Amino acid sequence: MFDAFFFQQVINGLSQGLVYALMAIGFTLIFGVLNVVNFAHGELYMLGAFAGLLVIQAFAPPLFAVLLLVVAVGLVSGVLLERIAFRPLRRFADEASLKSKAIREATLLSSLAISIVVRELVSNLFGSNMQTIPQQYLLMTPITLGPLTFASGQFVIFGFALAMLLALQWFLFYTRSGLSVRAVASNLTGALHVGIDIQRTIVLTFMLGAALGAVSGFLVGLYTGNIFPAMGFGAGIKAFVAMVMGGLNSIPGAIVCALILGLSESIATEYIPQGWADLISYGLLLLTLLFFPNGIFGGRRERV
Question: Where would you find the membrane-spanning parts of this chain (predicted)?
Fold first, then answer.
């Protein structure tokens, strides 16, 4: 017998999972290149949402124009984040410095500090309460398909996220800059020795990850109807969990695990209260660490 509610929850889970996937890719790209976790990534998600709201309130342009501006804000935020939180701690290019555990830990704390500072600044500027997106920009138009009713935002998020993921794969495998990113992620010292511009590649990686995060936050804001300064924390944690489950440096693994998290959380609400759904993700993380210490898709890095 066809269960309309269950099928609708599956669509909801896929949409949520793709949002996690866009953020998890940002985590994975930066970890693959620098071998460090960027804990400010959730704030890039939040900044994208607030940048979109400010542009809408100031100029009320078409949605596509707002989206382009959000992408631009994400790109600039990625450059600034790398310049402020990461580059000062990466002063040397020798192999010992590149593999230094102390530098990795200092960079992790630096990104965490930037995360806290940015979140508090936005809270002081806009307040900690939710900010409402203007009605005409919301992606809440009901779409009825037989016994099922969806919001237009679910299809927009699904389609846009899928397009972004495909474009990213094309970039990484079929462009010179993308091959440089993969080469640095595979062997940073080797890439340095063959003449790849490491600094340029690292900045490009931050720009890509930040743009994906900013767009994710903006689209979710249009779908939910409101945004707030701490909105990036929960999504960032879920994206981090997806990255760890996927094997830390596997983009396909991060995507698959993000979809698993989104689906499991959505379907779980049919059997357990909404407030307990987050435990599903953390339970899956614990199981992964117990039975797949290197991640479900973990393994040796690919040579390019």
Answer: 17-37, 66-86, 147-172, 202-228, 240-263, 275-297
CA 216 to chain centre: 7
What tens digit of pLDDT does each residue of 36-87 get? 889 899 999 999 999 999 999 999 999 999 999 999 999 999 999 999 999 8
Percent of the chain with pLDDT over 70: 94
Question: What are the boundaries of each domain within the chain?
Answer: 17-291
Q: Measure the CA–CA gap between 201 and 102, rounded to whole angstroms.
A: 23
What does the block give as tokens for 117?
């500072």
Residue 268 CA to residue 284 CA, distance in Å, equals 13
Number of C-beta neighbours around residue 228 at 10 A: 18
DSSP letters spanning 13-50: HHHHHHHHHHHHHHHHHHHHHHSS--TTHHHHHHHHHH
List pLDDT tens digits, range 217-229. 999 999 999 999 9
CA separation for the pair 271, 253 (Å, rounded): 27
Whole-angstrom Cα distance, residue 300 to residue 99?
17
The answer to whether 16 touches 265, Cβ cutoff 8 Å, is: yes
Dihedral of alpha carbons 116, 47, 18, 16, sign: positive
As a whole number of angstroms, the distance between CA 188 and CA 153 comes to 40
Q: Angle, to 10 degrees, between the axis of helix 231-246 and the axis of helix 4-34?
A: 80
Cα distance between residue 182 and residue 94, in whole Å:
20
Please give the Cα distance from 252 to 24 (Å, whole number): 10
Q: Where are the beta strands (DSSP E) in the chain?
A: 131-132, 142-145, 148-151, 226-227
Q: What is the mean pLDDT of the chain?
A: 87
Q: What is the pLDDT of residue 304?
A: 35
Whether the CB-CB separation of 190 and 47 falls below 8 Å is answered with: no
pLDDT at 237 over 80: yes
φ, ψ of residue 128 to 5 degrees: the values are -85, -5
Which CATH number describes the domain made up of 17-291? 1.10.3470
